[in-house]
Amino acid sequence: MTSKTERPRRLGEFELIGRIFAPLATGVPGAFDLADDVALIAPPPGREIVLKTDSLIEGVHFRRDDPPSTVGRKALRRALSDLAAKGAEPSAYLLALALPQWIDVPWLEEFASGLASDQADFGITLVGGETDATSGPVTITVTAVGFVPEGTLVRRKGASPGDIVFVTGLIGDAGAGLAILSGFLASSPTSAREALISSFRTPIPHLAFGQALRGIASAAVDVSDGLIADLGHIADVSGVRIEVDAVRIPLSPHLQGLKGSGLDVRIDAATAGDDYEIAFTAPPESTPAIRKAELQTFTPVTAIGRVVPGEGAVLLDPSGREIALERRGYTHF
Amino acid sequence: MTSKTERPRRLGEFELIGRIFAPLATGVPGAFDLADDVALIAPPPGREIVLKTDSLIEGVHFRRDDPPSTVGRKALRRALSDLAAKGAEPSAYLLALALPQWIDVPWLEEFASGLASDQADFGITLVGGETDATSGPVTITVTAVGFVPEGTLVRRKGASPGDIVFVTGLIGDAGAGLAILSGFLASSPTSAREALISSFRTPIPHLAFGQALRGIASAAVDVSDGLIADLGHIADVSGVRIEVDAVRIPLSPHLQGLKGSGLDVRIDAATAGDDYEIAFTAPPESTPAIRKAELQTFTPVTAIGRVVPGEGAVLLDPSGREIALERRGYTHF
Question: Same structural domain for residues A179 and A140?
Answer without folding.
Answer: no
